[in-house]
Amino acid sequence: MIFPSSTTSLRIELSDKLFLRDPQATDLGRRLVGESIGLIDQIGFEHFTFKKLAQRMESTEASLYRYFENKHRLLVYLVSWHWAALRYQIRFHTHNVADAPERLRLVLRILTQAHHDDPTTTQLDEAALYRIVVSEASKAYLTKEVDSDNQAGLFREYKQLAADIVLIVQEINPQYAYPHALVSTLLEAARKQLFFAQHLPSLTDAPAATAIEQALYAFLENLAFAALMAGSAAR
Amino acid sequence: MIFPSSTTSLRIELSDKLFLRDPQATDLGRRLVGESIGLIDQIGFEHFTFKKLAQRMESTEASLYRYFENKHRLLVYLVSWHWAALRYQIRFHTHNVADAPERLRLVLRILTQAHHDDPTTTQLDEAALYRIVVSEASKAYLTKEVDSDNQAGLFREYKQLAADIVLIVQEINPQYAYPHALVSTLLEAARKQLFFAQHLPSLTDAPAATAIEQALYAFLENLAFAALMAGSAAR
DNA sequence: TTTATTTAATAGTATTACTATCATTTTAAA
DNA sequence: TTTAAAATGATAGTAATACTATTAAATAAA
């Protein structure tokens, strides 16, 4: 992780297992990433193909395949980028906050506001990327290849983000028996509830469309602290 | 919903919007459903095709396309069948339990034991079906077509299951502000945490492989009741 | 038994998901 | 600055996927 330079925003470094050739290293690669976010956001991951992307970029399929083995790997790259950016934001905003409950609240605020562009990291359309993360991130690991992909380190960013938050949870209540499950549930719920609010509203308690993020924050905060404070939570 | 007859187990009736021709009505249709569960469980939904299924069944692609428009519709059908079966089980086991907290505990028990074959409904390999539900159910709605699919009624079973559980939650604490969000979070977490325990264990607190379901039940029970009992939960 | 319905067999199309080859341009090293 | 190396573009090609259409054969209903 490199600190933001004076001229440009921070550069997120991702494991070289996530690509064939580093897309951040070349102009075509950077355009690939930027335009793929636009296209996936527009038509969805299942309808997305490298051919369509190449047409949009006025490049060729073969050129794009030099960066990513296939579209699934590109998806893993994009969501990993998002997790890394979130992790960076969390560190940035919590590093001088001594109170652990307050740090957890900040984390939940950041999680529920992930659809806003963050001025410290934006070199990408993060709002579009977050829409992709909400709809498509689960597909990165819900495959028959999970175990080999996991062994190859493809999910490292997500696991590290979870691990960072687990530390806060454990600081709040070292006795709590399910810190990892709680954190992954919060991370997943933040996305799922937003999706439900937008598409399957009977599965959530979203109010008017504008206040979704406040309601979502309130739900997650309530859930997290209720779990951590409940007497029966300790073992 | 029809009660179990003397000779055979209950027949789950699904909305006719879920198929082109009712697969329960013919021998080929029933084989389609049964064999597709085996094949999707084996190779995963992305690798599954009607051609492979036809080969396995010694039928033809064209015949199978008469039952379902495409493989996505088949997936929606299969997971809807599972939700309907769960709903039936829940009604069956809770209908004469007066105590709402006890009913919720029963629901969570059923949710975390969904991978066992239930003797009252088994005409399908429910263990294999539940493995599919865990890995693939989210893909039923995480598409660009969610809104039109939802309008067509494709997610009715899931929404009704959630609504049934919401009633219990509201009986336990009518003041609780997020009953729908809590229920959908519990439903999603039951699947996700099982998947994590099996494939990404650092995201959960699963113990030895054999005790996953007890640990998962304990986590969900703790979470649900902590949320419902917390003083701050009321608004 | 005739008619209608369902299935099987076969074929065919457009798109997807790639891989290969080679010429050309861009970049980087000597 | 030349020269070599690397990256891109252009073109082509293959196997698999996701279907649709047609016709014939089998089965069931009237």
Automatic annotation (TrEMBL), chains A, B:
It comes from the Bacteria. It holds the Pfam family TetR_N. The keyword DNA-binding applies. InterPro entries: Homeodomain-like_sf (IPR009057), HTH_TetR (IPR001647). Residues 26-86 form the HTH tetR-type domain. Keywords: DNA-binding. The keyword DNA-binding applies. Residues 49-68 bind DNA. Gene3D superfamilies: Tetracycline Repressor, domain 2 (1.10.357.10). This is TetR/AcrR family transcriptional regulator.
